[in-house]
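Run log // design_07
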């Protein structure tokens, strides 16, 4: 066994097997393991890893996610509490008290299974969509501070994509941003505001983003990559 150093996944452990025809991958103990045919070249492994990266991110999240009754999930301006209810066995019930949203799952549900995690994750994303307008005053404040003016901000439907600047200068922010700490929300907003000047990811674009975030672009990007999402994206 040997390993590849991947910037996103860390050490990826490789086992070559003479009886294998295809590459297989699995998460175990927080690490990614690949079984590959004997003689597979490093360049091919890196290519396959990059092609599979989106699916690997999703499966990594499923393995790392954990939910439990009484769990509190801090969000931007509010929090979600996972509760329990006995009224319905086939649905999650929502209630709200001030800035606390309670998502009550059926009594006795096993929250360790993938299907339950997907169910709870979907419910949390529903809460995020309902609460996402909280992001708009912050976005407007950041734009005013930087002296830039998009046509408008709106809440987008994207899950993987956290922000988007349209050719008509409309900036769409994913509802999922409510799960991030405020500094990362502002980083995403600054990223999209920089697209008003550079509709690309050129060095000039990144220089502007870096200016907007006081020289912290790389640090904030690392923090975003390391962030443990409470939902499946």
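design_07 sequence
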């Amino acid at each position: 066994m040997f390993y590849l150093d991947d910037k996103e996944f860390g050490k990826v452990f490789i086992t070559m097997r003479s009886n294998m025809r295809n590459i297989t991958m699995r998460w175990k103990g927080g690490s990614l393991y690949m079984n590959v045919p004997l003689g597979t070249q490093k360049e091919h492994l890196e290519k396959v890893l990059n092609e599979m990266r989106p699916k690997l991110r999703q499966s990594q999240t499923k393995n790392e996610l954990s939910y439990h009754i009484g769990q509190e999930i801090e969000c931007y301006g509010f929090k979600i509490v996972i509760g329990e209810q006995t009224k319905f066995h086939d649905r999650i019930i929502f209630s709200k008290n001030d800035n606390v949203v309670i998502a009550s799952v059926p009594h006795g549900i096993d929250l360790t299974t993938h299907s339950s995690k997907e169910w709870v994750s979907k419910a949390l994303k529903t809460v995020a969509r309902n609460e996402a307008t909280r992001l708009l005053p912050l976005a407007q404040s950041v734009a005013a501070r930087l002296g830039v003016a998009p046509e408008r901000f709106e809440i987008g439907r994207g899950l993987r994509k956290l922000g988007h600047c349209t050719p008509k200068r409309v900036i769409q922010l994913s509802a999922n941003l409510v799960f991030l700490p405020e500094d990362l929300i502002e980083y995403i907003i600054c990223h999209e505001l920089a697209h008003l000047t550079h509709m690309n990811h050129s060095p000039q674009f990144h220089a502007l983003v870096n200016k907007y975030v006081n020289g912290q672009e790389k640090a904030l990007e690392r923090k975003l990559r390391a962030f443990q999402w409470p939902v499946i994206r």
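The first helix runs from residue 42 to 64.
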